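Appendix B.2, paired examples.
Example (i):
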Amino acid sequence: MRVLAVDPAVRNTGYAVLEGDPRAPKVLDFGVISIPKAQAQSVALSAVRSHLYNLMKKWQPDEVAVEGIIYVQSHQTAISMGAARAAALIAAADHGLKIYEYAPRKVKMAVVGKGTADKDQVAFMVRALLKLSETPPADAADALAIAMAHLQSGDPLRAKLLDRRLL
């Protein structure tokens, strides 16, 4: 199975493409879609959607995994995050792909073994588990972690831990 995972944000959306066995997944691609602050939010959202659409076209994933909604103190931040998430969901829907949602705590639990792990711990474990030569940027590391959690969710030993399906 090949999965595209997305850690959505308007300015820095992390993405990762992994495939194969959940115990030894193969990393095909990962990175961060960075949009300059000078760009209007509508332009940024369009760019995120277009970039993800092109990644889907290039890598032909079987499924898409997206970080779920998190609690934030600011209404403005929540609206912005929701808009970025919508851009990712629309790109996946345009490709007819199944979309799965994973709560940040469950992703951290799957990768680090601790649902309250910080970004540095997630990045460290992603690098170690995927045998990467360098620690990925935080947003890309989060997307890699989401992809790993998704692949593990298909593993019968882990299916009950990560079983929340969006569509």
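Example (ii):
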Amino acid sequence: MAQYFEVHPDNPQQRLLKQAAALLARGEIIAVPTDSSYALACHLDDKDAVERLRRIRQVDEKHHLTLLCRDLSELANYAKVDNKQYRLLKSATPGPYTFLLEATKEVPRRVSHPQRKTIGLRVPDHAVLSELLSLHGEALLATTLIPPGETEAMNDAQEIRERFEKLIGGVIDAGACPSEPTTVVDLTPMGDGGDPVVIRQGRGPLGPLGL
């Protein structure tokens, strides 16, 4: 049975988020609000939690999972970023964007793309999630909460609780999120002098990226 944490969207109660962070530390999966839609998140280094995350979404190892980071300096721990890539990242973070970048050795091989060795990374602009990341102390591994066989991301915490309470450890309810997923941009071509490639047009506008 999933624990349910109802928090203020702008000034979340520390006591409740500490309880949610403790669940993550114990290997649980939690539904978290973001600036795009709800996402499922777990501890990066917990192999069992990562496998359960994929099973819930029914995606294989070729599906890019995303690291939710507190800021750009933390993002740089997990991805190889050159000056051009960094300038683009700085122009659009925090915000509803996911960037595909070459993973560093800090990222377990089981969570990066098996052929490309890339990982999705983002710095969300959401007060509750930012506070949870600070309490957790490191990046969280996440995937957009799109139920298997569906195309729309979920944004209602009560509905998430009803549908997934036997599969996950907790739900953080900070009110409805936007129902649109992030814009996904592959920045790896920039490492060879190429241009960024838009993989998915989502909530994040392309203007700030110069695309």
